[in-house]
């Protein structure tokens, strides 16, 4: 299936993703998360947002550039996986220094999941130049991004994975499930990292250790983080 592509479409979908994430965040705050958000605000200060943003930007460009630095023509790049990892490291250091226990990421779960789901479609329609395309495939749903080769639509795989998680999360919020109040962020990271690890086998990125690329190694670390902190949250519930 031929997919029309254009580099500028990525920016359009980024704007849509940010807008949709903001609207969903506002809705979830008024619907279910206001008490949780107030609890997070009471334990943090204005530097929390600065630390989070700094970690996200540093991680996004650092990890993204590490991956494309292994290409035949090294060049800078950015990555949502790196952004998540960078934000996690920065916030956990912030929490450790301030003696804050418990998750502060619960309020970000829905907006991030939706943002990734929409943003990945932008990666698809941006074409081969976005460098997020899949490997060639003979499957009937392979997409032609302009070079006449049918490829795995890995962007759609990831978008669909995030939408499924989001639906499960919203259903759990409707039931007021306990995990949505204190463990949702860790479970989101677990699902995100696990699906990202799998889809990376369908991308032509340089291998670093055995068959694993930079993002798979990062996903593995994120899985360990999620399992460790989720287990700790279970013990303190």
The main sheet comes to: 2 strands, antiparallel
Give the class from helix and strand content and strand pairing.
mainly alpha
Approximately what portion of the residues adopt beta-strand conformation? under 5%
How many structural domains are formed by the residues? 1
How would you describe the shape? globular
Tally the helices: 8
Nearest-angstrom radius of gyration?
18 Å
Q: Numbering strands along the chain, what is their spatial order in the largest sheet?
A: 1-2
Order of helices and strands: HHHHEEHHHEEH
Number of strands: 4
Proportion of helical residues: 55-70%
Alpha carbon gap, first and last residue: 49 Å
Are there runs of 5+ residues with pLDDT below 50, and where?
none
**Mean of the pLDDT scores?**
96
